[in-house]
Amino acid sequence: MYPYALDLPSTPLWDGDAPGAQGGEIEDRPAISVYLPENEDAERTAVIICPGGAYQGLANDHEGLQVAKWLNSIGIVGIVLRYRLGPKYHHPIPMLDIQRAIRTVRYYAQEWRINPDCIGVWGFSAGGHLAATSGTMFDVGNPASEDSIEKVSCRPDFMVLAYAVITLEEPFANVLSRANLLGENADPKLVRELSLHNSVRTDTPPTFLFHTDEDTGVPAENSVLFYLALRQAGVPAEMHIYCPGEHGLGMADTHAVLCDWTERLKVWLQNYAGGAE
Predict the structure, then answer these.
(1) Positive or negative torsion for Cα 213, 216, 217, 222
(2) Regarding predicted confidence, which is higher, 158 or 43?
């Protein structure tokens, strides 16, 4: 599987133990690695990146660090999330990690020269499921909390979902991701709720979806189901499904056909995310 993490400089999401922590090792300590572009704009867009890995590993290079560097190249802050994984951690722990990451970036937006209304998420494969969870299961913050960060909204302002796991139901589920997130004998009601096309809201943020027809690890029906749910809810959405390309290609910048998908994304970000130079 994928290594847990590269040697990325990181900032823990909580002082002390994270909620539900089962130890003090790196896999118990969710964190973010922030990569700032060279521009000094006061109102930059930021994207929190969720690498994939079937909820049991993190593809932190081609679905993390490389993505942050690409975002930096177009003037956007890239933030790689290290979230907790199964089988040690099950839902809702990964969701708490992405929600805390969004709150943290919004809380420190002025210090990091980020527009607090232009904070998005970008997830790959199982990381796409986590990103989509943040766009369907968010709150406006807890004003009664003693933790200042918890008072901040965890709603992302836009989403980018690359060959994302969306459904945990048959016949299009990625069974390994489901088992790592929910365990082997998951409650059918929870499986349905976390099949995220069933949880789209009218205030789910605008979404860009990328997939390939040849993907057998996470069938393209996952993106199709989410796109149709977004349309039904009246949420702006754009979807690109290419024919060639296996699962897990990341930016696909050397692929003869897929290498232009990020150019389409760049245009979309200009229109829906307030970013991209």
Answers:
(1) positive
(2) 158
